[in-house]
Amino acid sequence: MVLGLWLAVAAVSLFWTPWSLWWTDGYHVWQKPSPSHILGTDGTGADVLSWLMAGSRTNLLICVLTVLVTAVFGLLLLAAMLARTALFAQASVVVIDALISLPTVLIALILAVPFGPSVAVIVAACGFGYGLNLARIARPQAMLVARSGYVESALSNGASAASVFSRHVIPNIMPIMMVQLSISAGTVVLAESGLTYLGIGVQSGVPSWGHSLATSVTFINVYPITVVWPGLIITCVVLALNVFGDALRDCADPLSNPELRAVRGRVEASKGSEAEYV
Prior knowledge:
Blueprint: H1 2-12, H2 48-81, H3 86-99, H4 104-115, H5 119-146, H6 149-156, H7 161-197, H8 209-216, H9 225-252, H10 258-277
Helix pairs in contact: 1-2, 2-5, 2-7, 2-8, 4-5, 5-7, 7-8, 7-9, 8-9
C-alpha cells in the first residue's frame, strides 16, 4: 500500500500540487498544519505538502535508475568473476574485494568534484557501490550453478558462455538479486537524504525528500514538526521496500516457498514418468 501510494503521488505531482513550488509567503513562515496548508509551511513560507509531493517523483526516479544501474553493473561484474579464464576471474575477485571497501559517500564526493551535485552523481555513486555488493553476494550461488553438471554439459555441446550466463546463471540467482535490489532501493532513499544534507546530492531548488529534510533539520529545536513529515515518509518507504523484497524472495525462491517446491517436484516426477515410458 505504501509503495502504491508513492507511485500514485508521484504521478499526480506531475500535473497537480496544492500550491506552486515557487509560491512563498514571507509573512507566514513555519506555519503549523492548517486547512490551507495541511502539513504547514517551511522557512520560506512554501507549502510543505507540495514540496514533498514533488519530491516523491525525484526520489522515485533516483530509486529506479539506481536499481537499473546496480543490476546491470552487478551482472557485468559477476560475469567477469565467472570467466573461463582463471587469471581474469581471480583478478576480478581481488579488484572487487578492494573496491567494495570504498564507502558510497566517498565515491559521491569524488564524482561531485568534477561534475557538481546532481541526481546523476547519486545514481552513479550508489549504483557503483551497490553493484559491487550484488556481485560479491551472488557469486557463491553463481559458482555452484556454473560448476554444475548441466552447465558443463551445455558448454560441451557448444553453448556460449553468454548463453549459459543468461539461461542458467541469472535465473538461479534471481531470488538473491531481488532481495539485494530491494535493499538497494531502500538504501538509496536514505543515501539521497544524507548526500543532499552534505551538499552533494540533488541540486538546490530540485524537490526531493532529502532536500525537505535538509532545509528543515536546522530548525528542529524550534519547529520540530517540519522535520517529522519527510522523516516519516522516508522511514515508511524504506520499510515498505524491504518488506517488498522479502515477499518477492519468498515467491521466487524454492527453498522458502513450499508451493514452488511442490510444483517443481511434480514437474520432475512427470519427466521421470515420461522417461520410463519411453
